[in-house]
Amino acid sequence: MAVNPAHGDDVVGSFHRTFNVSGGVTLDVSTGSGSISITRGEGKTITVDATIRQSDGWFASPDMGRVKQIENNPPIEQTGNAVVIHTLRKSVDFGWGDHLSISYVITTPVDTQVRAHSGSGAIDVGGITGGAELEAGSGRLQVSDVGGNLRAQTGSGRISFDRVSGDARLSTGSGSIEGNEVGGRLSASTGSGHISVRRLDHGGDLHTASGGMELDQVSGDLEARASSGTIRVGGELAGQHRWDLSTASGGIRLSLPAQTVANVRLDTGSGGIYINHPVRTQGRIERHHWEGVLGESGGGTVTATLDAHAASGSIHVN
Question: Do 85 and 123 belong together in one domain?
């Protein structure tokens, strides 16, 4: 319920709603300003708890009546197993000068597909199996135990995740990307910040404009590019997979199993090349260039490929 403020204080209100569903659920949540938290609940029920906050605007003071109106008529609708929470529309639902936010704490059945958007605010999602699409204009994104595919994008904020069973597409204009375990393929980019990921079962495509990378337990094809920062990669390069790594400013450090066998090409603009594996040189060898076969092939065909380039920095293969 709305609380009458003292002069200059915010008006704070709230509402609670419960929705019964059956089968797979589609949950679409949007707020212009405010946080969103979605976690797995019990049974076949969706619960929504909202906090409404209105502060001084450019042309108006907080209005308890307006908050009360939202409490009585929340922007929510249900059609079968689909529940939609709408963003309030400026000039229709509230004034252009108002500073109004609605934050949501939601529980939903495990077999839910989530779409969530916040113009300004954090989004947290966990424990659902239908995949998730998350977007914030500004705010961190946090995901855990999501079955299916994940798409997460924020204009400014950190993205963190723990256990995504499908593919993951992650992007932040400014902020780091950190996580553990992607069962599918990872696509990740950040305009400013580092990327740190443990366990990529099907490799990935990663890019950072300003920041380094730390990747561990990597399998599958990998493309990693850093405009500024050191790239560190550990994992298994085998079969017909290819790793393509480059950094414009920084070094490259690789940790590979002793039994690794791969065709290798290494280049540095300024820096040394250091290899702690058996090698067989092929083609030209120079101070800042080496190409050949890494490991003992036993005369068989070598199909794995490693291509690494450091414009300013050294390359280490251990």
Answer: no
Q: How far apart are CA 232 and CA 299, in angstroms?
A: 30
- Among residues 58, 77, 108, the one where a domain terminates is 108
Query: What are 209-265's pLDDT values in tens digits?
Result: 999 999 999 999 999 999 999 999 999 999 999 999 999 999 999 999 999 999 999
Same domain, 310 and 205: yes
Domain span holding position 249: 22-32+109-317
- Taking the CA of residue 127 as centre, how many other CA atoms within 13 Å lie in the half-sphere pointing to its CB? 11
Q: Do 145 and 87 sit in the same domain of this protein?
A: no
**Domain total in the chain:** 2
What confidence category does residue 89 fall into, taking pLDDT thresholds of 50, 70 and 90? low
If asked whether residues 46 and 115 sit together in one domain, one would say no
The phi-psi region of residue 220 (left if phi > 0; otherwise alpha if psi is between -120 and 50; otherwise beta) is left
| Residue from 143, 180, 146, 183 nearest 159 by CA | 143
Q: What is the pTM of this model?
A: 0.91
Owner of token pair 């780091």: 176
Residue 22 has pLDDT above 70, yes or no: yes
Dist. CA 134–CA 26, nearest whole Å: 14
The pLDDT > 70 percentage for the chain reads 90
Q: Which of 108, 123, 155 is the last residue of a domain?
A: 108
Tokens standing for residue 264: 């290798």
CA 29 to chain centre: 18
Instruction: Assess whether pLDDT exceeds 70 at residue 283.
Output: no
